[in-house]
Each structure stands twice: as C-alpha cells, then as structure tokens.
Write a structure and sequence with these properties.
The protein has 332 residues and is of the alpha/beta class. It is built from 12 helices and 12 strands. The protein folds into 2 domains: 168 residues, NAD(P)-binding Rossmann-like Domain (Rossmann fold, 3-Layer(aba) Sandwich); 147 residues, 2-Layer Sandwich (Dihydrodipicolinate Reductase, domain 2). Strand 2 and strand 3 form a beta hairpin. It binds NADP nicotinamide-adenine-dinucleotide phosphate.
Amino acid sequence: MKTIKISIIGFGAVGQGVARSLLSKQEYLKKQGYDIRVVGISDSKGSEINTKGIDLEDALNRKKQKGTVAIDTSDALELIRNVKHDIVVEVTPTNIGNGEPGLGNIRAALHAGRHVVTSNKGPLALRFTELKEAAEDNGLHLRYEATVGGAVPIFNLVHEALAGNSIIGIEGILNGTCNYILTRMEEERMPYELVLKEAQELGIAETDPTYDVEGIDSAIKLVIIANSIFGQNATYGDVDVTGITKITPEALELANKNNYVVKLVCEVRESRLTVAPRLVPKRHPLAVGGTLNVASILTDLAGRITISGKGAGSIETASSILSDILYIARNS
Ligand SMILES: NC(=O)c1ccc[n+]([C@@H]2O[C@H](COP(=O)([O-])OP(=O)(O)OC[C@H]3O[C@@H](n4cnc5c(N)ncnc54)[C@H](OP(=O)(O)O)[C@@H]3O)[C@@H](O)[C@H]2O)c1
C-alpha cells in the first residue's frame, strides 16, 4: 500500500468536493493500492492539521456548522511549508489580477518540494512558464486538469492518450454559463437580459456575470490551453475576446432557420487565440447545449477528437483533481 499525504488549500465547493470524493472512494483507492490521507485543510480563517490523517466527515461537518474548518491558527502558507506531505491541492478562488493567494501557495509548495494539483486558473494564466519550470527544476509534478473544462479531461487526453500526434488546433466551448444563456435564448426566444436573470436565479450565473458573459473566463482558459498544449507563452492580452452580451434573439432565430446555432467558441490555431460568438452547424460536434463544455482537438494522425461533459460542479471538478492526484501517486 502506498501512502500519499495531501493538503487541501481552500475548502469551498471544490475543496469539499475533493474531501467527499476521497471519503466515498476510500475503499476503491485502497484496492488500487493507495492510502490517500489528508493531513491539512485550510480555508480563509485558518487550518486543521493532523499528520496521521484528518477525519474528513468531521471536517465537512465543522465547515457546514461553523463556516470554517479552522481549529488551528496556522494559515495556508504555514501548513504548506511546515507540515510534511506529498501533494498540495490548491483550490482557492481564481484571481486574475495578481493570482493570489493561489500563486504564493503554489510557489511555496514547489519550493518546499511538494507536488501541486490545482483547479485555480489565475496562477496558471499569469505565470505558466515560471511555475512549470519551477516544478521541473525541482523534479515535481504540477497538474491542472480541473482549471479548464471542469470534469472534461482535455490535458490528459492530449498529453497522454494523443501523445505522438501533432495538435493542429483546438476549438471549444469552455464556459457553461454562456452556453446555458445562448441555449435558453435560442430555445425560448427570450432576450439576453431575461435569460441572464433566470440563470442568476438558478445559481448558474454569478451576481456579477461580467467575467463569464464578456468572455474573460473563456479567454483565461484558452491561455492555459495555448501554453500547455501549444508551448506558447501567452497571456490574457494575447486573446481576441468578444462576449455574448450583444447577441439578440433575432440573430439566433435567423441562425436556427439556416440550421445553425450560435456558440461562444474559443479557438487556438497556430499563434492566433480567439474567443467569439460563432455560427456552428446544428450537427457539428461543438453544438452542445445547456451548461455543457466541449473541446474538439484537431490532430494530424487521429483527425478530430471531441470530448464533452460538465465544466463545473463540486464533485465533477473533484473528478479531475482525483485523477491528477492518482497520476502523481503512480508516477512519483
Ligand atoms: N466550482 C467549480 O465548479 C469550479 C470548476 C473548475 C475550477 N474552479 C476553480 O477552483 C477554485 C475553487 O473554486 P470553488 O468554487 O471551490 O471556490 P469557493 O467555493 O469560493 O472556495 C474557495 C475556498 O478558498 C478559501 N480561501 C480563500 N482565501 C484563502 C486563503 N488566503 N487561504 C486559504 N483558503 C482561502 C475560501 O475560504 P472560506 O471558506 O473561509 O471563504 C474557500 O474555502 C477556483 O479557483 C475556481 O475558479 C471551480
């Protein structure tokens, strides 16, 4: 049995999803030969630390009842630096201004000799090359499947299953909120503002939806794809971005009459990065509805490979994180 000690930095939707998945998969993982123990959990108020392994049921209950997991005043950086463990699971909020607190947490983890698994887009969109090199220089893994596409394993697919192919281009729909709004506008012939309100009431769109509907979230994900898969050194400023706020029900109806749907499509081709509403034929693999995400990868040997699935959600995102943890467990 291989014992892997991990910390969970950030105990919101994703951090708790990771804890729940580890609880429900405990026996399954042991059968695979892995005893994955959480030795530290941090939220914004403090931490719980137990080098023998935290009782995750207890931590989840405390978070629900008290609003915090903290029973120790150590903050995330102290936990990362001072508690001996193998993998830091960094799942604090995305901050696209300066990447913090995630950037500092990931730098500290790599400096302390710990592998990193993250769903946090900020540090990777801002400092991809620096972090990748820091990991490589220290012989560590930096895994980030959950940053793009939630449960959809885009990086695993390209780097593992499609290894040997040259990747010609990638097209995708990487923001479930925009896809939901466009799908509902088309189905119900409702104007943008009304559908946005409905999405906010359902918790699909944020109170301030700018980040999603202006295409910013999609562009950040595209930057991570460009850097990880195409070896670019791109930043947000390199992406041509148009959001969905100007799309009218009339435009969608006209598209519909001609057997098209309108989708917010992200595309990397050679060095061009674009996020923009595009006409997609109804039977095209990119024409997925609702909150689904999709990525279509154009390769030289395999042709077009398309994968689609849930781009967000606590347990769905934990699926990608667990897969990254197991990758490290197998390869370190
Ligand atoms: N939700 C999804 O479906 C999804 C999917 C893919 C990627 N992501 C990404 O995954 C990350 C986490 O998302 P989420 O939905 O779980 O966010 P969330 O629910 O807002 O949770 C964030 C957690 O980070 C904690 N935190 C904030 N500042 C901290 C600090 N300085 N030190 C330690 N902990 C700190 C918060 O503490 P408190 O609890 O004390 O506030 C909270 O527990 C984000 O970067 C997001 O973009 C999310």
